[in-house]
Amino acid sequence: MPSSALNPPPTLADLERRPPPAGPAIPSTPQHPAFGQSALRQRRNRSNSHSSHDSHDSHGSHSSHSSHSSYARRHPDRVPPKAASPNGAFLSVLAILSLVLAYTLVGLWIFIKGFLLTRHELTGVNECAKPFDPSWSLPVPPWSFDDALLLQWAETSLNPQTGAGECRLAPTHKKAVVLIVDALRYDFIASPPPPSSSAAQGVEDGWTPNPYYHNILSVPSQLTTRYGIPANANKPGPSSFIAHFTADPPTTTLQRLKGLTTGTLPTFIEAGANFGSAGTGVGQVNEDHWIAQFKASILAQSGKNEGGNAGLVFAGDDTWSTVFPGLFDSDKMWTYDSFNVEDLDTVDRGVETRLLPFLQQNHPNRTAGVHDDWRLLIGHTLGVDHVGHRFGANHPKMKVKLEEVQAFLKDIIEAIDDETLLVLMGDHGMDERGDHGGDAELEVGAGLWMYSKSGFGYTARKQHFDPAEYISGSEVEALLPSRIPFSPLPSPPYPSSGHRSVPQIDLVPTISILLGLPIPYNNLGSIIPDLFPHPDTLLRTLRITAKQMRTYLTTYAKHSPDLAAFSREFDTVWLDAVRADAELAALLQGGKRMEEVEKAWRKAAQAYHRFNRVSLMKAREVWAQFDMVRILVGLVVLVLGLAVIWMLKSGAQDGLLGVLPIAAQQNDENGEATTETRKEKRRSKGTQELLSIVLQSITRPAQIGTAVGVAVSQASYLLPLISSLPKFGVIESTLASATIASQLSLLYDHLPQTLVSGKKEGEGDVPNTTKVLNVAGYVILAIHAGLFASNSFLINEDRFILLSLSTLITLRGLRCIGSCPTTRGKIRSAIITLLSLLLVRLASISKVCREEQAPNCKSTFFSTEALNSPYLMIASYLFAYLLPTLLAKFLGQSKSFVGIAPLFFNFGLRPTLMLGSGYWLLDWVIPQDFVVESGWGERLDWLKGWVAKVDLVLLCVLGLLFWIFAPLCLEIRQEPANTASPEREENKPKVTIRGYANSLGSSYLLLVGIVVSLLWLVTQPAGQLSLAAVVLAAMLALELGDAERDTLILHDQKHNPSSPIRPPHLSSSEIATLTLLSHLAFFSTGHQATLATIQWRVAFLTSPVLSYPLSPLLVLLNCFGQLTLLPPLLTVLSVLWNSTPQPRGSAKKMFTPQHILAALLTTTLYNTVLLLSLGALSALVFRRHLMLFKLWTPRFLMASVAGVMVQLGGLAAATAGWQVSNKVNNVFGSEFQ
């Protein structure tokens, strides 16, 4: 049935037929009490002759305010009192929601402090004062190979500080040039397939090289094919080494720079430091690293002070200034903005311009005395990475950028001398969309190329010698294979053995040894054996690396227990390595045959390499410690908070028992009636009384808990009994104890009555179908929370959202079809249901697939990986134009598209939506060849930025101000009198208030339109289409919910005709539908619970330069706006939709604040259950799972952000509902409780 059937627009005659107050007749100019002292009045002259007219201004007045006021003063008994303000009721709603938010924040903060602790950093430095000895040999072994003697021999004789051990080797190179090409994937530099391809063998593999990035940057592969590693050379010569360079996730630049310089492993939570800026200390490296060791060595050799210039030069990504402040020579460091992904060339041109003068003697910018004295050149280009983010890997601009890198690399190779080591590498890879951040194969698959004109050493051996195979064993290969497959370069045509692969942190000890430096203190990498092609040199480097790693692990165990579980295994493999080394020393001392020595050499090398790899892999398994005490305390707070939410939701619906004041009339001694206020235990009525009961329960327990928390925090430092437990700070302990105390008191006082509360007095029976639907909402929630127990279900959460949403809509539609009393209502419900299902399915077409979903998923969010298509642009513009019209149709159902509504939709919403589409149209046009060739690129780029700025100002400033001060969507229409029989009541002039029945919902929809337009701007075109479909589906869901409540009211009137009509609360299935729609919007706008799907481009929406705090806010809005802003806004809109105001004098109060509170608490309940499920599963069940940081941790962080932001959005949505209610209160005199 039509949603307005129960609430037809009233006429002035209808209102006038209400019983007048006792006393003399009201003067001939009628003033309905509902209008009060507002300006919404219509004068009716004595002759009853009116000209019909429409008034689109609900504040237009045609009567004298002063005459009405004087009448009120003369006859106070005939004018109803001024309606009570809704401020108290809504302030109570905000207070209760704030309390729930505080509980969530405390629990989440404590839990995260225990679950996402960063790796314990040791600030020790490898103080290697011993010079290298070219003639060094193993010391005399112990007289017995007893375990204790072997360990003593290792700690004394092999100790470089106190014994004869080594801590460095003679440098093979005095200088180094390190060129980091951001996001340089391995296959961008890999060699082409060998000549004996599959085609020659008659095998059809179907693989062809990509024309945009394969064999474009070909210099590394050409020189490797020509020179390789001269394993059996007898004199120095050029050497080249190329490999797959495996990055440790998270594959963000800052974390990779730490690993490439310190040799340490990152933790997941450190990815957030990528937004740190220079000078803040966020992301700064405080650990020992090879660049600092190189600088110290240079200064020591030259006799300069510690702060002097050492000839360290840098140009490129400004992240280096964050990671290494003050490290490079102050006059030889040039940094460029790293986040401006729109700029493809500035950083690359800057690196070339700044570094080539140091290398080329005839460079025009070279200055004698300035460009001569250098020892280390580091360049970090960003063009390849930015092309990936902007267009994807498979794009012609990628070929152009790789050709530029090729030309730059050729200039470097030509200019370097024999003493210079050249390193080309990527800090991480990229997927085909150009994204990175996670641990997908293409994201961690960077490329490494090392080249030297003088070689890395020569062997003077006649037999073939493969260092990687020489030190490898079956156990080590199982832990960390030296050759791996790589999907962009499949077999065939590439060898089935795979591609040579080394971990990125292996660069640290390798480059340290080559430059004659001590290995950084915290290093967990091993050397790259291919660069040390003599057994003796190889063993010495492995021994030095293992010895330093052993020192680090021993020291680490004293500061943190997280590696304690592997201490026995560490000791075993270390003892095996020392034993093999002692056996070799005994053979060398005894002058044994060379064959035996060779075997012992290899055995010792394999043993040390095994120790290095076991240490790395065990540390990688742990890589972050867990504080179980904080985790459990945080979970307790969250669980109790969930129970409190349930209890408060029930209290908002049915009231809570408490001691409350009640007014009672009695006669005094003189027989006069007096009113006395006394207190009695009863159920709360309204949100103010609910808040009063809550405060009674939590105030004193919170005070006691605060005192206990302070005492406990101090006792943890004083009492030996609990000194072993993690120490809580004063703030942490106080918040935890006060929160838990107040939660327990609140639950103890009111949870039992909530669980056993039955049907309220006067409340009718609820149809069984309604009960089933209410249960269905919670069943969907339980399944949603439970699917995180399986990694397969978690990976395919987007499919579950589509399935569960379709199921809920179908169930609700069938229920409405079966319950509607009229055929028209049944047909309308069926149409709404079918349209909702269609829109949901259309919205789900746009998606981005996770790596784990392959090959059963194909990304459709981008038409060609990262480039939006012109067809999407056209569709985006079309929907930007049509969406306001379609939304207006919903207002038309309740005759609410009146007043300011047409003005807003036609001249406010539609232009801002089209500006949002126009921004992305310009974004697509600017890089097109015809625009680049015309020279209009810069001007259009400037215009694009201003389009976004204008749109943001229109929405966030002018739009919000307009909405705050705009009148309700009302219109007064007057019908002329029937002059034939003017004396009859029905023939008198009639004044109809159009929009009355939905005056709350129509005004609130304008605000929802502003938020949707804001999300439209930060969402790319494919996502805009999905967003439009989700918004329309949500509006249909509102109509479906309104129809459900109408049938409940009709059912209640039928079975309880004497009971007063009380609008039902939103059902759990309705709120679950809105929440699932927001999840669908999240997935269909190009997002997944992975770092790689973060759309960094929107950070530069208004400017090519990163700006704080706007840029992070835009990224946050793009990622979580649909997930966190839509649910509370749509929930409140659903409460207000077709909620008819009760005019002054009706003796009825509106329950809007209670309904809003109950609905928002149900939305909060949904998100809190998901958060709690993920937190408990991650910390208690899967904390040692291999996929913890790949699957559960990102989803937990997503749930955490969503849980907090939904509650913040709920506060904003409730405040907006307060504003609309104030307007209705002022116009109609409606009262709220």
From TrEMBL:
Pathway(s) it belongs to: Glycolipid biosynthesis; glycosylphosphatidylinositol-anchor biosynthesis
Record bears the keyword DNA repair: no
Family: Belongs to the PIGG/PIGN/PIGO family. PIGO subfamily.
Transmembrane segments: 89-112, 628-648, 772-794, 871-891, 903-922, 952-972, 993-1016, 1113-1136, 1156-1182, 1194-1218
GO cellular component terms, A-Z: endoplasmic reticulum membrane
Protein name: Related to GPI13 - protein involved in glycosylphosphatidylinositol biosynthesis
Sequence ranges of Basic and acidic residues compositional bias: 51-60
Subcellular location: Endoplasmic reticulum membrane
GO MF annotations, alphabetized: mannose-ethanolamine phosphotransferase activity
Biased composition (Low complexity): 61-70
Pfam family, one: Phosphodiest
A single GO BP: GPI anchor biosynthetic process
Keywords, sorted A to Z: Endoplasmic reticulum, Glycoprotein, GPI-anchor biosynthesis, Membrane, Transferase, Transmembrane, Transmembrane helix
Membrane topology: Multi-pass membrane protein
Record keyword Iron-sulfur present: no
Origin superkingdom: Eukaryota
UniProt-annotated stretches for the region Disordered: 1-82
